[in-house]
Design goal:
The complex is a heterodimer.
Chain A: H1 19-28, H2 32-60, H3 71-106, H4 114-142, H5 168-196, H6 209-241, H7 254-288, H8 295-308, H9 324-352, H10 361-384, H11 386-392, H12 396-426, H13 432-458, H14 475-505, H15 543-548
Chain B: H1 2-12, H2 26-59, H3 78-107, E1 116-123, E2 126-131, E3 136-139, E4 141-145, E5 155-161, E6 166-170, E7 174-179, E8 185-189, E9 195-200, E10 213-219, H4 221-232, H5 242-250, H6 253-256, E11 280-281, E12 286-287, H7 290-298, H8 300-303, H9 316-327
Parallel strand pairs in B: 1-5, 4-10
Antiparallel strand pairs in B: 1-2, 2-3, 5-8, 6-7, 9-10, 11-12
Classes of the chains: A mainly alpha, B alpha+beta.
Chain lengths: 558, 330
């Protein structure tokens, strides 16, 4: 054993840290707020990448029989677009918000396992980079496609060596396994934090709804991402060691993979969507100046969605030839999951009822969310009607439906959340005028692009085709759909510019710019590394309301 | 209002080639009828709930400028919650019952004794079509007889895949049934109006998923019987095209294609015995004309990038002879 000699004296360095020191600080940080920001930045980066892929797809489909992009490239584009948006944009951005907000909302100083948190972020980041490196390195290694080209749900046997030569599928499998480990680590961490690190008085029944929803979604991640990881490992065994689980030419089962995938894939939709509900449940009350309507019902509905969503996966498989009894079962369970979701919608409406609604940018996005998510819910119920689904499944109607869920629903709430919490994170307000430009451009673009796709689907256009034939009544709808793209791009450009500009020159926010009621607004903006100088004690669901209205505190009514 | 207009437009969109709202066959008609019911229900829900949201926004918008006091805080109401839990539950129940009925009607229907039996094999990227009881093999163009209210003559389809998953879908005749390797699926059509109906593979199946089209030609019973009789004949033999025939039989064509009555018995590609009786080539990628056929054989990749048929590297003379021969396969 060697002994090391400690320096006896050290000079305290008081000079400004260099740029390199700053980068180093961020790389080695275990602070939940910094990691939250890094998650969100990573996700927004991938949002841009996935958005560019989507724009190319719409460019190719703007006119019939186009030859702008070759079928091979087109097939990698929609595969990577789907994979990116779900695993590298949706999951990390929600992990980022959970990271940043949960400890602040429950009055904790950090997550339960700060180093695990750092590990989860970096492994997600590198998993994503590994996946994308297939564009560059896969062709150089063994030929074959440059990137995965079998669709984001990787239906067997397209992922088997016979149909996916080269290594693109291996990049996809390994990339997703790694990203999955990141999600699981994050879920363990955030779940533990919520269960064990709440401040004094913060009972489960007093947690903000965003935190409640995060607890449910993190539990769901444990239940559904772990089996996906297992399924991916099985698929990797097929490819690397010649196992025959999904290799149909050796007697494997293509349907088995579909069950495995959708066991993850459908609850995943709720894993993505529920945090959006969480944002809305925080923002609508503050901008309506009213307490959330029916808090216990909202919590119950969240938990109900979590449970029911585990029993609906085969509604993605109504056309695979299941028995009528199985089809009926999954139709019923899918219809049922709409009930708690509807209850949530009604409770938000009830919250706004009789309020004093302030039309700031976060609220605008929430209102658009309500209407668009209503459409998404209705088309979802249509898809649960099995005979209707036989016609609609695998068409552009489904594409339109889930983009209404994930953009019209989730992304709009994410934008709302960015406008709402940006002042907390940076200490400066985002510009309202640019925010409204962003809102209206994106609203128009989104609806142009995706309303029209419902019609294309009903007129017989399957999804994932790299071109479509003229004279089938599809030209107009596809053109409108593509015309919406520049509007959306301009909207996002407004957001990016707004963030960059406001970061330096935005109005100073102060600790509580929205006159809000949850604990994150009780500390400075941005919060100090330790979050709260003194841990707060809460007596109700709205601790700041109690402070501001000592004559009429919430705890009298709960 | 918007949604009602949309609904009307949808139901009116009956003239297009592959609209699901222009059904002409029993399963598609049942699916359409249920869909229209669901669309009306949806329109009502959209108008009511959307109206509530809009009313909220207009009625309770804070007047600009003045700070104002906080509105009364309402924490919830058990009665109201119960109402908006029970009403959606009732809607789900109605939907479930009507859904289950149509599921069983379509899936549990039994073929009548005179039903036409067809086996459809999905392949990358074309459809093999076999009539096992009639001894007919063809590709990409499915001929079926028309039914009327007196004489029902539906067609029962057995769906199999030779490679990856596909999905069989003719929007105006029947919704989708997947075509899955190692799994045999069944579906049926019962068209009531003669004509040509367009469908295409609906499950992503690789590079040329977009060009895996299927035409269904619905004919009167007489026309159908004549078509079957013609398809059962071996290939025509015309001495005038002997050089082309020799070329065909002496190169790799025969490994993948069948021409009945010759040594060509391959099954990997479409049966060519009555090639010229079909209106398109490459699973609907181009009309079946001399010029396009020649271009196809010269380099299939040109017309259908990624197609699994190799370019045969023939010189112009032999290519012309070969095309001359194929043109006689009527």
């Amino acid at each position: 054993m060697t002994t090391t000699k400690l320096p006896l004296t050290a000079d305290i360095d008081e000079s400004e840290p260099s740029a390199l020191d700053r980068v180093h600080e961020w790389v080695v940080t275990v602070d939940h707020k910094r990691l939250g920001i890094m998650y969100i930045t990573l996700a927004l980066g991938f949002l841009v990448v996935g958005g560019i892929e989507a724009s190319l797809i719409r460019l190719q489909l703007a006119v019939p029989d186009a030859h702008f992009i070759s079928p091979e490239v087109f097939n990698t584009l929609f595969t990577m677009h789907g994979t990116t948006m779900v695993f590298l944009m949706g999951m990390p951005i929600l992990a980022g918000f959970a990271n940043y907000l949960v400890p602040l909302q429950i009055g904790a100083r950090d997550l339960a396992f700060p180093r695990l948190n750092s590990f989860a972020f970096w492994i997600t980041c590198f998993g994503g980079l590994l996946l994308y490196s297939s564009y560059i390195t896969a062709p150089a290694l063994f030929g074959g496609a440059a990137a995965p080209d079998f669709g984001w749900f990787g239906y067997a046997p397209l992922t088997e060596p016979t149909y996916s030569r080269g290594n693109a599928a291996d990049y996809w499998i390994v990339g997703l396994i790694i990203v999955g480990f990141g999600s699981i680590a994050g879920a363990v961490n955030v779940g533990t934090t919520i269960l064990t690190m709440r401040t004094k008085g913060m009972t489960l029944g007093r947690m903000p709804l965003f935190t409640w929803i995060t607890l449910v979604t993190q539990s769901m991640i444990l239940i559904v991402v772990s089996p996906l990881t297992a399924a991916l490992i099985l698929l990797f065994l097929d490819r690397a060691l010649g196992a025959h689980l999904f290799d149909t030419q050796a007697g494997g089962s293509a349907v088995l993979w579909r069950h495995f995938f959708w066991w993850f894939g459908h609850p995943e939709v709720y894993v993505l969507m529920l945090p959006g509900f969480g944002f809305v449940s925080e923002i609508i009350p503050v901008f309506s100046r009213k307490v959330i309507f029916g808090y216990p019902v909202m919590v119950a509905a969240t938990v109900a969605i979590g449970f029911i969503s585990l029993g609906v996966w085969a509604h993605h498989m109504f056309a695979v030839g299941m028995s009528p009894a199985a089809n009926t079962f999954f139709a019923v369970s899918t219809g049922l999951v709409g009930v708690p979701t509807g209850i949530k919608l009604f409770n938000w409406i009830g919250t706004m009822w009789g309020g004093r609604i302030r039309m700031a940018t976060p609220m605008l996005f929430c209102i658009a969310f309500l209407l668009q998510f209503l459409c998404a819910g209705i088309t979802g119920v249509m898809l649960s009607v099995v005979p209707f689904d036989w016609q609609l499944t695998e068409t552009y109607f489904v594409v339109a439906h889930f983009h209404f869920v994930l953009i019209g629903g989730l992304l709009f709430t994410v934008f709302a959340a960015i406008y709402y919490w940006f002042p907390k994170v940076t200490g400066r307000m985002l510009d309202e005028r640019l925010g409204k430009w962003h809102f209206w451009l994106f609203l128009i673009g989104f609806n142009l692009t995706f309303i029209s796709q419902h019609f294309a689907g009903m007129l017989g256009m399957p999804r994932r085709i790299y071109t479509f034939l003229p004279e089938r009544g599809l030209e107009l709808w596809n053109l409108i759909s593509s015309v919406g793209v520049p509007f959306q791009l301009a909207g996002v450009a407004c957001l990016v510019w707004n963030m960059i500009r406001s970061f330096r020159r935005g109005a100073i926010a102060g600790g509580d710019p929205w006159d809000a009621w949850t604990l994150e607004w009780a500390t400075s903006s941005p919060p100090a590394e330790y979050n709260f100088a003194e841990l707060p004690v809460v007596r109700s669901r709205r601790p700041l309301w109690d402070l501001k209205h000592p004559e009429d505190p919430d705890w009298q009514y709960e | 209002m918007v949604s009602l207009a949309v609904l009307a437009a949808m139901v009116q969109a009956t003239d297009t080639v592959s609209s699901i709202f222009a059904p002409v066959s029993t399963p598609a008609i049942k699916e359409r009828d249920l869909s229209v019911l669901v669309l009306w229900l949806s329109a009502v829900v959209f108008v009511v709930v959307g109206g509530l949201i809009a009313y909220n926004v207009v009625r309770f918008r804070a007047p600009p400028g003045e700070p104002g006091t906080e509105p009364p805080q309402v924490y919830g109401s058990a009665q109201v919650e119960a109402a908006w839990t029970v009403v959606p539950l009732l809607i789900v129940m109605v939907l479930t019952l009507s859904t289950a009925r149509v599921i069983y009607e379509v899936q549990e229907a039994a073929p009548p004794p005179n039903a036409v039996e067809v086996t459809v094999v999905g392949r990358q990227w074309w459809w093999e079509i076999r009539y096992p009881k009639l001894g007919v093999v063809t590709a990409n163009e499915l001929h079926v007889p028309v039914s009327d209210s007196v004489v029902r003559r539906p067609t029962w389809l057995t769906l199999e895949s030779a490679d990856v998953s596909h999905s069989f879908w003719i929007p105006r005749l029947a919704g989708k049934t997947d075509v899955i390797p190692n799994k045999t699926n069944r579906t049926w059509v019962e068209p009531f109006r003669p004509g040509t109906y367009l469908g295409q593979c609906a499950e992503y199946c690789g590079t040329q998923h977009a060009h895996m089209l299927l035409r269904v030609i619905v004919e009167t019973p007489d026309q159908f019987a004549r078509w079957v009789e013609h398809q059962r004949q071996p290939a025509a033999v015309d001495p005038a095209v002997e050089p082309g025939r020799r070329t065909f039989l002496s190169i790799a064509c025969i490994s993948c294609h069948t021409v009945a009555g010759t040594v060509a018995t391959g099954r990997y590609g479409p049966d060519l015995t009555h090639l010229m009786a079909r209106s398109t080539i490459g699973a609907g990628v181009a009309p079946n004309t001399r010029e396009r056929l020649r271009a196809w054989i010269k380099d299939p990749d040109d017309l259908k990038h990624g197609a699994l048929m190799p370019a045969m590297q023939l010189d112009d003379e032999r290519l012309d002879q070969l095309v001359d021969y194929l043109l006689t396969l009527r």
